[in-house]
Specification:
Elements (H helix, E strand, L loop, with lengths): L6 H52 L5 H6 L6 H25 L9
Length: 109
């Protein structure tokens, strides 16, 4: 590479290098913005899907089993809530069932 003795030429060469590097930052920022937009759109679509499914069950007279049989499974959010409820119920029932089955340490009176 030739030696630069003119400060103006050196500044221009450095600016070209910076511009090339900044292009990568611009593309990364643009891609991140598109990703954020897609995530927002997905959240909205999931919310609408859940609302429509719940409306079919609550207002439309369908059961979850009937909808599943025709190929419409419960939205992921509904499934998560149901799993959480079952887990909460089983942990609340566990201490009571062990005490009822003689699992308690104190004698019953």
């Amino acid at each position: 590479m030739a030696k630069l003795t003119d400060p103006q030429q050196a500044e221009e060469a450095a600016q070209r290098l910076l511009n090339d590097r900044m292009d990568y930052v611009r593309r990364a920022i643009t891609a991140r913005g598109a990703l954020d937009g897609a995530r927002d759109a997905l959240k909205e679509a999931e919310k609408n899907d859940t609302a429509a499914f719940q409306a079919a069950v609550n207002n439309g007279g369908w059961t979850e089993d009937e909808l599943r049989k025709i190929g419409l499974s419960a939205p992921e959010k509904v499934q998560r809530v149901q799993r959480r409820r079952k887990a909460t119920q089983s942990t609340q029932d566990a201490p009571n069932s062990s005490a009822q089955n003689g699992g308690g340490t104190e004698p019953e009176q």
